[in-house]
Structure formats: C-alpha cells, structure tokens
Design goal:
Elements (H helix, E strand, L loop, with lengths): L2 H17 L4 H5 L7 E6 L2 E6 L6 E5 L4 H18 L13 H26 L33 H6 L4 H7 L4 H40 L3 H15 L6
Antiparallel strand pairs: 1-2, 2-3
Helix pairs in contact: 4-6, 4-7
Length: about 240
C-alpha cells in the first residue's frame, strides 16, 4: 500500500471514530497516528517510519544532517498538504542549559587546577592579583570554586568535568605569569557563563509560566464575571 494512501486511511479512520459516540476507554486508545523520525546514528542518517518494516539508511552524515533530511521532510509535507492530511513537526534537541552548566563545571575545574599549580610554583601569588574583584580568589563571591545549586552545578558534574588541554599543559609548566594569565582569562569567562546560565533559567521559568497559563481553565471565572455583569445591568427596584 502506498504510504500516502496509508496516511489518508489513518486520517479517515480517526475522523470516523470522532463522529461516533465513544466511551472514555475508547477515547484514550484512539489511533490514527503515523510517526516518521530522522536520526543521525553512528555517522549515518536513518529514517525510521512506523509503516516500514525496517529503518532506511539515507547515507553518511555530511556536515549538518538536518540539511540532508530536509528534502525528505519537505517532500512528505508537500504530499500531506496536497492530500489535506494534518501533520506536525517535532524536534528533540539537547537542552542548552545543560551545555552551559557543563561548560561552567569545566571552567571551575580549570581555575582550581591553575590555583593549585600556582601554590606550588609561586607561593604568595595571591598578593599580585587584582584586588578590585577580590583577585578572583577561590571561595569569594566573584569566583565559583565548588558545587553551586543556584547555577545547577552539582558535585557529580564537577567530578565528571575535565580541564581543557591548555589548562593541563600549564599545570605541567613552571611559568607563573602564563598560569596566572590563563587563570584570569578563565575567571572572566566564568562571569559570562554565569550570566548565560541565569538568563537561560529565567527564560525556562517564563516558558513554564506561559505553558501553565495556557492550560488553566478560566471557564468558572468567566461565568462568574458574566453573572456579575448581568446583576449590574438589572434596574434598581423602585426606580
């Protein structure tokens, strides 16, 4: 059976079911959905179709895999529009907040590693740092040095984080000025990371509030409002 005809059949079956009286159990088990997914797996782009017996390999991933899947998606959309079949596109993406907090964990690990190395190669190095920011002293408000749940930074994330190759190279060296310079660079970068995390958290909270507002049932409030308006419109007795 042609895939487009199969989708049309699913649509007709779902429409027919809606026109009949159904029990609550039947409503929960309503069918009529055809799912198609495009996924990059092991450097190969795969198409997973619920009406196909096996996944279909669309070739090796060349750069942006979405660009490779785009022609298939657009062709399917055009077919559905022509057949007046309803469809929706969903995207599963990595949470940007997780990437930001992971970068923050790596930053903290790097600063701590360089501070430890400075204690060895140049004792008293804290006397030479910028006092306007508390010198970026680990443990002050200007620098995060350990877990911080306000930023979603857990001990588990810190344990998994690894300093960059540049930090590791400096930790094997003895040039205090280079170590101190890179440490100051990481402190500046941390300020930007912390700001990004805060903004993303606030954005997520706003999205959740909007979603909650959309799901709120204002029917009772509206009915109460209409009743009050009707009362106000009634003429006063004896007027």
């Amino acid at each position: 059976m042609d895939m487009l005809n199969a989708d049309l059949l699913l649509k007709n079956e779902a429409t027919a079911k809606k026109s009949k009286r159904k029990t609550a159990d039947e409503d929960e088990n309503e069918g009529g959905f055809h799912f198609i997914a495009f996924m990059p797996i092991n450097d190969q782009l795969w198409k997973l179709d619920g009406l196909e017996r096996q996944p279909m390999c669309l070739g090796s991933v060349q750069g942006d895999w979405l660009s490779q899947a785009k022609p298939d998606i657009e062709a399917r959309m055009a077919q559905y529009e022509e057949g007046h079949i309803e469809f929706a596109i969903l995207s599963l993406v990595r949470d940007p907040l997780l990437e930001m907090v992971t970068a923050l964990a790596e930053n903290v690990k790097g600063i701590n590693a360089l501070s430890t190395r400075l204690d060895i190669v140049k004792p008293g190095w804290k006397d030479f740092i910028d006092s306007s920011t508390n010198g970026g002293i680990v443990g002050t408000d200007s620098v995060i040095s350990s877990l911080n749940l306000a930023y979603g930074l857990t001990q588990e994330m810190l344990n998994k984080a690894e300093p960059s190759h540049a930090v590791m190279d400096l930790c094997h060296g003895d040039i205090a000025s280079d170590i101190l310079g890179h440490r100051e660079h990481l402190i500046t970068a941390q300020a930007g990371l912390r700001m990004s995390v805060k903004e993303e958290v606030q954005s997520n909270q706003l999205d959740e509030e909007r979603a909650a507002a959309r799901t709120c049932d204002y029917g009772a409030r509206m009915q109460n409002f209409v009743r009050k308006m009707r009362v106000k419109k009634q003429p006063l007795k004896g007027a």
